[in-house]
Structure formats: structure tokens, C-alpha cells
Amino acid sequence: MRTHFVTATAAGRQMASAGSGAILTITASPARAPLPNEGSLGVVGAAVEAFCRQLAVDLGPRGVRVICLRSAGSPDAPGVDYAMTVSAERAGISREAFEDRIAEGTLLKRLPRLAEVGAVAAWAASDRASAITAAVMNVTCGGILD
Known about the structure:
Blueprint: H1 2-18, E1 21-28, H2 41-59, E2 64-71, H3 78-91, H4 95-103, H5 114-125, E3 135-139
Parallel strand pairs: 1-2, 2-3
Helix pairs in contact: 1-2, 3-4
């Protein structure tokens, strides 16, 4: 949370002085719906999402948009892949079976890939999304219902 605060407020000051900009952050599904054995991930994610709303209120009048992306975790991201591998071993199942188990809990029956999250991020930062601020974009493949 501290890193988000320091980085986003510093960037926000620069963008506000220029009169435009977009700040993007990313959180995970537990920010909205806590899960067992996730530790502080959900608490920090919820704090980041609340911080983004507040920052949008403070910077919006100066032309800066703030958007948070909430992802279900991309299995092709090295850190997520590692966590799934370790969790699968602990559960005594294959890595693929573990991913399938999580994917079954989404409406699309899959998890978002890095390229998909990146595409949403690029769009959110672009002028095509210029009317969006103080929002959490749901990139969970329907794992979280907003």
C-alpha cells in the first residue's frame, strides 16, 4: 500500500501540473471477495482500490484519471504460475488441475491471460477511455461479479 501511495501521488502531482494523465493500478480478486489462505492480499487490494477512488476525487479536477484493474490472476504470469504450482503440490494434484479448479469458479470457465489484462490496461490508459475514472475494471473472467 505504501508503494502505491508514494508512486501514485508522485506521478499524480506531475500529471496534474501537466493537466492530464492516467494512473493505473492492479489488484486481485480477493480485494473484492476474500478467499481462504490469501493472507493480507485482500486487505491490501481493498485498500488500493479505495485509495484509487480517493486519488481520482483529488486529481480528477486537474485532468488526471485513476483506474484500478482487478484481475483473477494470469496463469501465464511467472509469479502466478509459481504460486499455482506450489498450491497444486500441496493439494496433491497437477498444476493444470489446480488451474482448472480455479477457472471453474469463473463465468467464462477460464482465467485472464497477461495479454488480455495488458489490452485492458492499454485501453484504460488511452483517450478512448477518457470518460472513465474512479473505477475498478473487472478483468476476472467473471470470477467476481460487479
